[in-house]
Amino acid sequence: MITIRIPPTLRTETEGASTVEANGETVRDLLDDLTGRFPALRERIYPQGELARFVNVYVEGEDVRTRDGLETAVSEGSTIILLPAMAGGC
Amino acid sequence: MAILIQMSTRDRIREISAEDARRRDALLLDVRSDEEWKVGHIPGALHVPLSQLEARLPELLSDRSRPIVTYCAVGARSLRALTTIDGLGYEDAVSMAGGIVAWRELGYPVESDSRLDPEKRERYSRHLLIPEVGEDGQSRLLETSILLIGAGGLGSPAALYLAAAGVGRIGIVDDDVVDSSNLQRQVLHSTAGLGELKARSARKALEELNPDVEVVTYEERLTSENVDRILSEGWDLVVDGADNFPTRYLLNDASVWHDVPVVHGSIFRFEGQVTVFKPHEGPCYRCLFPQPPPPELAPSCAEGGVLGVLPGVIGSLQASEALKLALGIGEPAIGRLLLFDALSARLDEVKVRRDPACPVCGDDPTITEYIDYVEFCTAR
User: What is the pTM of this model?
Assistant: First the structure.
């Protein structure tokens, strides 16, 4: 199992969960697994199987866009962080 | 007991008054620390800190018969120094009773190497004691200009700590007024200031905290029309505590074009992010987030709430990064985004790389003038 961290602004879509476990060998596998269980999340960040531009995905602290994108390999024990920008300074 | 009395009698014999010390044709030897010496010392005195006497005095003073008068702050260390000096073979050393305090009280001359006046040396003494800051660093801070975008949740702690640290010039851009719902976290403002412009309320608080600081206020919202004017007023760096995406993207583009580093912070509920954008050296905000989320996924604190202390943590981290940049010390969070989660008490870090295809700071920029930022942040 691999842990995916869900940002506070997307937790409505994960029924409040701040971390979700998922299975797979690539980031794409994980997103498929995750958004298959939370369809509202799929609509938000992964429509048509492509990652929305406003969300960054980090594998072991590296943005997957600087690695192999959705084909970036993940391994057991990896930590995945989903991260959209936050505006607040208030 | 007998021994103690004997010692104190002997010590008294080896002390002379400040008046006698001034009359005597002897070498005055200051045994205090470097910091104390800088603040003020007797003109013409030789300075060797007590702990270095054994190692350094023989090479500085080869004549063992030269009369010596040691002094320190009030006369205790200088008396102790005599034992070491005797041990080194000097024949005629005495200590000045009452130290430089007594000397000053008599109105005798004292000279100073310090660029900071005694009040500043006292106020910033805890900085002066840190080798990485010291007098050079503090003088640098006093000459540093830092602009804060927003005097709200993040701007409050950042402004307070920067002012307390003696940052010489602090600018505040904010067109908002103090509301009672702000006071749960915006520690710069107070109940008495309700309804007042935040920029004015902030100036009052900062000037009360530290009169060394010049506070410049901009009672306006940052826009494409005023950003060039504001950024060209000599700011060394910007602390971004804005509360909306259009301002953040506008500030990003302007800071790249004006070549001013931005210490970025943002917060929501229990979580916050901090990083430093240093134009051309590291990534910019657009490299990190090429596009803002749609408005429904970017609720403000007014819509989603925020733990009152969270901006205290994140704004203080921003102040810490700002001070490091101003001092040129440590490893600023350039190319690293720090993620703080108050609920799990965890601080994570992800890498942020400069994007060569970035439309603003990339190799072949496609955005070279201000755009309609509201449209950019709402259009889909």
Answer: 0.82
